[in-house]
Amino acid sequence: MRKGIKTLMVLGRLSWLAFLVVLVADFFADLPMAWGWTAIGLALGARFLAVRLAAAGPSRPPEEPVEVDPPVAGRWTALNSPASKIPSHGTRIYGQAYAIDIVADPQDRTRPPFAWLWPLVRRNSAFPAFGEPLLACADATVVRVSDRQRDHLSRNSLPALLYLFFEGAFRDLAAPAGVVGNHVVLDLGDGTFAVYAHLRRGSAAVRAGDRVRAGQHIADCGNSGNSTEPHLHFQLMDGPDPDTARAVPFTWRAVGVPANGETFSVPAPDDRVEEGRPYRA
């Protein structure tokens, strides 16, 4: 089944690429646009079938979330949380039905608010999440590391957000890596994999094949991929490839799953003296 899903996802991207080729070539030659519309139809149909095929397969029930450690330390706020809606990001593709976004929200520093018109963009250094260390959520094996994509400027104004939607369509052509940006995938065992997305360029502190311990620094928070501002996108799934994996629900030890807008605090790994210590702010 996973092979069939992967084939459909690749077919969908190739069909979108074919449409773009026809669109550009039409400026230089009188090509029938029927070829372009056929390519769009194939792209949409392949994506639809891939999503339906993934949904038809067995998956863990949401009543059985996997408990892991929080992937950060300090004070953070949740966005796009599965505690508020499922699928949390409005889609089930890339195994992200139960994904969560979190932004650093320290008491001594203000996170820049969303701007309707100005400033159009901000530098990443303006956001407290940028460069914050990300921690292994469990003892695990590193199966995938990517940290060569650039960290772009913020997209947290209305004009920039509209541009992000347009840009995202092209990022999707580059497979999941274009959407998640720099990322690390951990094999937690028992068929569960954790994804850390939108990491800072060049910040990976681990390599594929490494064994890591819970609380170990693995990378830094960044703003790569399809991202509005520096933040961590975290999710669990049942395979290492987001193209074919299904979402797995999670809960963070002593935190749970914070809802949209909910702030929580996590002590540094050395300060987590006992399981069950309250982390919530």
Automatic annotation (TrEMBL):
Disordered: annotated span? 261-281
Species for this entry: Actinomadura miaoliensis
A Pfam family assignment: Peptidase_M23
Gene3D superfamilies associated with the record: Glucose Permease (Domain IIA)
Q: Which superkingdom is the protein from?
A: Bacteria
The UniProt record lists the keyword Secreted: no
Query: Which ranges does the record mark as transmembrane?
Result: 7-28, 34-55
The Basic and acidic residues compositionally biased stretches are: 269-281
Domain spans labelled M23ase beta-sheet core: 178-238
CDD domains tied to this protein: M23_peptidase
Q: Which UniProt keywords apply?
A: Membrane, Transmembrane, Transmembrane helix
Write the protein's name.
M23 family metallopeptidase
- The keyword DNA repair belongs to this UniProt entry's keyword annotation: no
